Amino acid sequence: MDVVAYLVRDAAPNYFASVPIPSSLRGFVDLSAKEWLHLATFSAVVGAGSYFAVKPYYEKYLKEPEDKPMNFDIRMDEPKVADIIDVEDLGENTSFCRCWKSKKWPFCDGSHNAHNKASGDNLGSLKIRRKIPVTVQSSES
86: Cβ–Cβ under 8 A, 6 or more apart, which residues? Predict the structure, then answer.
């Protein structure tokens, strides 16, 4: 325990006090070659230590996995979520969900708006509009 106490109370503060960190930009010009070497070594050790200390957390929590699923709760018991919708059942304007957050899947309920506001994304729905009115032909001819 004496070794740890010595390192924390005496060795580390003495070493940090010896690091030649200038108090102004002009002070960097006045450093000798030995002081530059000391400062460069200290900076490299601090930088490498910081990198290796943060790297596991970055990879675990911040980096987006490339195989991240998009669908988290819509018909998860099915091997593939696919829908067939007859054109005749569509209205004049129909919006389909592309964010996988809609409670009216496969139709859009505007859930992407909260996602866009929170993340700064610009996701929108797929809108299908009928241009030519469908005419029903009578089979009595």
Answer: none
Give the residue carrying structure tokens 């991240």: 68
What are the backbone angles phi and psi of residue 123, rounded to the nearest 5°?
A: -65, 140
Residues with a catalytic annotation lie at 80
* Cα separation, 4 vs 17, whole angstroms: 19
User: ∠ CA(107), CA(111), CA(116), 5° rounding?
Assistant: 130
Give the pLDDT of the chain (141 residues) as one tens digit per residue.
Answer: 889 888 889 888 888 888 888 888 888 899 999 999 999 999 999 999 999 998 887 777 766 656 667 777 888 898 988 888 887 778 788 898 888 888 888 889 998 898 888 888 888 988 888 777 666 666 665
User: Structural domains in the chain?
Assistant: 2-62 (no CATH), 69-141 (3.40.5.90)
Whether the ω angle into residue 13 lies within 30 degrees of 0, i.e. cis, is no
C-alpha 119/C-alpha 16 separation (Å) is: 42
